[in-house]
Amino acid sequence: MSTSAHETPLPADRTPILTIDGHTATLQFCRPSQHNRIDPDDLAVLMDAFETIDRHPELRALVVTGTGSKTFSSGYTLQSVHTLAANGITFGMVIDRLEDLSIPTVCALNGSVYGGATDVALACDFRVGVTGSRLVMPATRIGLHYYPGGMRRYVERLGADTAKRLFLLGQPVPADMLERLGYLHERVAPEELAGRVSAIVEQITAGAPTVMRSMKRHINAIARGIYDEAAIQEAYIRSMRSEDLQEGLAALKEKRPPQFTGR
User: Fold this and answer.
1) What does the alpha-carbon distance between residue 249 and residue 136 come to, in Å, rounded to a whole number?
2) Nearest CA to 158 among 187, 133, 123?
3) What domains appear along the chain, each with residue ranges and CATH number?
4) Residue 188 to residue 199: CA distance in whole angstroms
């Protein structure tokens, strides 16, 4: 089929792409002809991407998005859904690893989201979707029981009642309802997505990186019911003695942006 003069041709399908620009990394699903589905071969690629991110201390934020304007991702390919692991890596392991990344993560949902990809978004710290998109969770309709980490995230982030609504009914849920349910933190017009995500990333990167990483880790632990008060108190005291706090206070007094170094 030919492409009209007013349409931008989509790139060829391939494994997810990780790019790094300054303090920000971007992970993009790149199978537009298959609604950006995630294939077994992608699992190792994604794990390698997360390892690369954690090896770059200068990174402050990760953006996760899809290719095109219709679908963020259709989730794990149904042809391999019966396969528990690919090269020893399960889909659930990959999403848990995303959730535990040290830097804050922003999911830019450029379109609708389906199946396991709904958990990709939930594993991110911030989720921005577009008007006209929807979520479809077909697990019960195809006889598939969701994996432990995904169910935990649904309940932790959305509550048991919303988790039941999305899992057990299996009905398409439009973006405006997803925002009301708390699945989306924000909903914008498609043409505003990139700008809004950039603004969130800018807010993240303006913060003190060491404190940002530590607070994310402890918030996740508290949400899981693992409350280490002593570790949080230690991080608090360490921040009180840090150079970054002195810089932050000086910048506030001098009415300028702070220049944090992570020390």
Assistant:
1) 46
2) 123
3) 17-205 (3.90.226.10), 209-254 (no CATH)
4) 13
143 residue type, one letter: G
- By C-alpha distance, which of 248, 260, 198 is closest to 24? 198
| Three-state SS at 35 | coil
Residue type, 29: F
Confirm if 18 and 52 have CB atoms less than 8 A apart: yes
Nearest alpha-carbon partner for 125 in 58, 73, 197, 57:
197
Q: From its phi and psi, is residue 251 left (phi > 0), alpha (psi between -120 and 50) or beta?
A: alpha
Q: What is the DSSP letter of 166?
A: I
Taking the whole predicted model, whether its pTM rises above 0.85 is answered as yes
State both tokens at 42: 């992608």
pLDDT tens digits, one per residue of 9-64: 666 789 999 999 999 999 999 999 999 999 999 999 999 999 999 999 999 999 99
Strand order in the sheet with 134-136: 71-73, 112-114, 134-136, 173-174
